[in-house]
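Recap from last week: sequence in, structure out.
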Amino acid sequence: MSGWHLEYSIDVDRETRIVYEKIFGVWRVSTAQNFVKDYEVEVATLIKKPWVRLCDLTNWKTSYPEVIDIIGEHLVWCKKHKMVWSVNIINNPVTYGQLQRMFDKGGTREISKTFRTRTEAEHFLREQGFGLRPSTTPWG
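Predicted structure tokens:
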């Protein structure tokens, strides 16, 4: 199943236990709230065993300040429901700072990694024992 909106996409690979996310544009409170609701539905079949998120943030522009708390709480939920790695591809210094504050709010800094390229992020996940899809991923 795949969730896609103008501001984000969520694609769950049940076989590899990887949630592929792609974030776009400027996030408002309503965007973050919708994302959280959609996310919990999309990953419901994964949360009994360890899983990871691979998030492409290269098209994310910024977020309203309140979004930091909403996504921070979302990361608390993810960790509570067996997320073992939050792997993020990011190249914008403004959003990098916001992302770090989200990790702090969510208590996930120790399981959150950031990379500048998809290749680096995928290499990290392979080193952790996660198999990735062939190059036909949602952003491949």
